[in-house]
Amino acid sequence: MTKLGVNIDHVATIRNARGESHPDPFFVAKNAIKFGADSITIHLREDRRHINENDLKIISKKKFPLNLEMAANSKMLKIALKYKPNYVCIVPEKRQELTTEGGLNLKKNKKKIKHAVQKLNNSKIRTSLFINPSINDIKMAYEIGSDCVEIHTGKISNLIKAKKNFKKEFLKIKKCAIFAKSLNLKVHAGHGLDYKTTKTLNQIKQITEYNIGHFIIGESIQHGLKKVIKKFIKILKK
Ligand code: PXP
To answer: Distance of alpha carbon 25 from its chain centroid, rounded?
Structure first.
């Protein structure tokens, strides 16, 4: 079965809005696994806007598969080698962006990324590169020696959500997934996914893992409200 990785960054976003300890990303991570997720993803950003190093420290003592998203710089590499998550997904990172807006520029950063991948591979950490759906990028990911590629699904997600024609983008992703698989690269996908976009992409059987964050946390807030309000009403009745 296709695997589901749950990105819990935005639990930390809500926690950090108050600078306190609720909600707790580790608690949510444990429950996500308990309810059937295959792995937990966290992105330790340079500006620490959501997940921080202490979260990584706690979550990496896990009893579940952890996927760390990080930029390919020496500081982050040192942190990854210290905490040894099961998987690392190398992503581009710009300070001003709201989220990871696109895939890696492998052509420009090949040497740096290859160095990081080699170090991580030597530490038996599975590596993935977050890329746009591009045959050239898949060739480069193969040359770099990554175990997996994660295809950025932001564009197709936006097209589907805006009810626009997404066929061209879908076929592009499918072609990339087939090509990557033929090179023995594992194919993952993520960014901007909701129920509908995931259902559409899940027709591409070469994609074996989806990493989903914002929508899962958002939906959990919307649909978890009933239980919480009921609990308060019970307290206030006494
Ligand atoms: N995969 C990668 C590599 C990402 O950088 C992100 C965003 O942090 C996601 C998946 C999840 O995206 P979203 O939060 O839009 O589901």
So the answer is: 15
**Pocket, ligand 1, Cβ cutoff 6 A:** 7, 9, 43, 69, 89, 91, 99-100, 130, 150, 190-193, 211-215
Residues facing residue 47 across a β-bridge: none
In whole angstroms, give the CA distance from residue 112 to residue 229: 50
Q: Identify which of 28, 51, 100 to mutate to test ligand 1's pocket (most ligand atoms within 8 A of the CB).
A: 100
List the catalytic residue out of 50, 69, 152, 188: 69
How far apart, in whole angstroms, are the C-alpha atoms of residue 71 and residue 129?
10
Report how far apart the first and last C-alpha atoms of the chain are (Å, whole number): 48
37-63: average pLDDT: 94
Beta bridge partners of 126: 87
Residues 8-45 have pLDDT tens digits of 999 999 999 999 999 999 999 999 999 999 999 999 99
**pLDDT value at position 97?**
72
